[in-house]
Amino acid sequence: MLKGKTVVLAVTGSIAAYKMANVARMLIKLGAQVHVLMTHNATQFINPITFETLTQHKCLIDTFDRNFQYSVEHVALAKAADIVLIAPASANVIGKIANGIADDMLTTTVMACPCKKLVAPAMNHNMLHNPIVEDNIRKLASYGYGIISADTGILANGDIGDGRLPEESVLVEYVLKETAFEKDLFGKKILVTAGATREAIDPVRFITNHSSGKMGIAVARAAMQRGAQVTLVCAHCEAKPPMFVDVVNVGSAQEMYEAVTSRAAEQDIIIKAAAVADYTPASTADHKLKKSDNDMNIELVRTKDILRALGEGKRQGQLICGFSMETDNMLENSRKKLESKNCDMICANSLRTEGAGFGVDTNVITLITKSDIEELPLMTKDEAAHRILDKLLTL
Length: 395
What we know:
CATH architecture of the largest domain: 3-Layer(aba) Sandwich
Largest sheet: 8 strands, mixed
CATH superfamily of the largest domain: CoaB-like
Number of domains: 2
CATH class of the largest domain: Alpha Beta
CATH topology of the largest domain: Rossmann fold
Structural class: alpha/beta
Strand content: 15-25%
Number of helices: 13
Strand order of the largest sheet: 12-11-8-13-18-19-21-22
């Protein structure tokens, strides 16, 4: 995912510096070239050899170190960098960079980098909220630096408050968001539905389906990584919603209908990937339960057709994409769905195809538009999500 990308990790003097070894490992696993800069204070918390072993690159600390091939090293690395992550960022280094001070290898290189720079402050919460530090952080944000908010929890001295460096996976997600993909969806508003709705029979039981929500969540993640402003309307999901998207949690088909239709007009693209129950029990006041020995008969009513409502209300220039999970006559049934519900594209798959069922991490999708059919091979749901977005961009 980060193949061909160069990530510079700038590690400053904080007890949280130990987390950056795992960040480096995770980025390398994603295909990135990782280079590490350290302040002298940072070396008191973690040995540079750790980073050199992980990255297979010399860890740069001393501006005047001559133990590397001749080049103006901070300038050469600054030119190569696709992104710089300053983490943990101490109050001292934040203050230096915010005020144009470059007196060591780390601050000199950061100043020379034209790429996106992320800052993850980590310090005692009283220090974090010192007005001078807060002003320096605001100043960095005004210069285009991305600020990663500190976590709240038990700090190194036993206090409870904000100031903790976020977990390694969170830091990596920030890097991925900025660098993994071209921002060809920047400025677009995209709404995605995911998961399985649940229709209550009584306070204990409900009607649902086997959807895990993984495909819809993959589409939301892909759209976010490509620069879109994403709203994810999420029913019951087995997968965790991605960071950096606006999540709207719903339970029933009616709740999803209201959440989607109330937001539909402002969206550029709507992708309905959720598996919505076609029927729901009649309302609690009405529904008739008839017991006969061990059997229970439940009066059912149809749920509102979200995709049809979207198609009927589609505005000029808006794209509507639906999903069609079939067991028989996949192409024929999906084409009918495309026409009858006024969609621009249907993503069809068959429960009979290996690797395309509910709950798995792969999918086999056929993209159906009014003009053509594109059959995709077996691929991960993340890969399929990008192919779906690629196709929508051509319409």
